[in-house]
């Protein structure tokens, strides 16, 4: 059985005896979604789940939030370093607003991450010789 705990984000694979009893106990404390309850050793690709689709909708915002947290900054602190308002950083992270390549460069420098990880549309594509190449 593949189970997703929404908050905190935890993905569990549960097998063996008393699975339903354990699941009932977990559901008492957390909001839980059962992704698959197949008894066989068949697995559901994470990419086909609603959780994955929701996370992919705001991939850049999630990467930005992760980089900010890794840098040990609050949204307010990052906004101050960039010379913008805190609500702009929040909007970027929530996917409500997209930022320019120029802002991606400033974020990259401030957060010490590769700029291409923070740019919209910078997904890597394979070239004919098999090497990966950035769109930008």
How would you characterize this protein structure?
The chain is built from six helices and five strands; from the N terminus they run ββαβαααααββ. The strands form two sheets. Strands 2-1-3 form a three-stranded antiparallel beta sheet, with no helix packed on it. It has a two-stranded antiparallel sheet with strand order 4-5. Strand 1 and strand 2 form a beta hairpin. It has 136 residues and is of the alpha+beta class. The protein has helices at residues 19-29, 50-57, 59-70, 75-82, 86-94, 101-111, and strands at residues 2-5, 10-13, 32-36, 124-126, 132-134. The N and C termini lie far apart (41 Å). It is elongated. It has two domains: 2-40; 58-117, 434 Repressor (Amino-terminal Domain), CATH 1.10.260.40. Helices cover 43% and strands 14% of the residues.
Write a short abstract of this structure.
By secondary structure, this protein is of the alpha+beta class. The chain is 43% helix and 14% strand.
Number of strands: 5
Helical residue percent band: 40-55%
Radius of gyration: 19 Å
Low-confidence stretches: 122-136
Features:
single chain; 136 residues; alpha+beta; 434 Repressor (Amino-terminal Domain); 2 domains; three-stranded antiparallel beta sheet; two-stranded antiparallel ribbon; 6 helices; 14% strand
């Amino acid at each position: 059985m593949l189970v997703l705990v929404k908050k905190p984000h935890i993905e569990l694979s549960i097998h063996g005896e008393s699975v339903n009893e354990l699941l009932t106990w977990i559901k008492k404390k957390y909001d839980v979604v059962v992704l698959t309850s197949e008894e066989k050793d068949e697995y559901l690709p994470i990419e086909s789940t609603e959780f994955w689709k929701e996370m992919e909708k705001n991939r850049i915002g999630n990467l930005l939030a992760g980089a900010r947290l890794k840098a040990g900054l609050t949204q307010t602190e990052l906004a101050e370093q960039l010379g913008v308002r805190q609500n702009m950083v929040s909007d970027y992270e929530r996917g409500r607003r997209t930022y320019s390549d120029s802002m991606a460069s400033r974020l990259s420098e401030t957060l010490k991450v590769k700029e291409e990880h923070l740019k919209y549309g910078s997904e890597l594509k394979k070239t004919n010789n098999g090497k990966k190449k950035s769109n930008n």
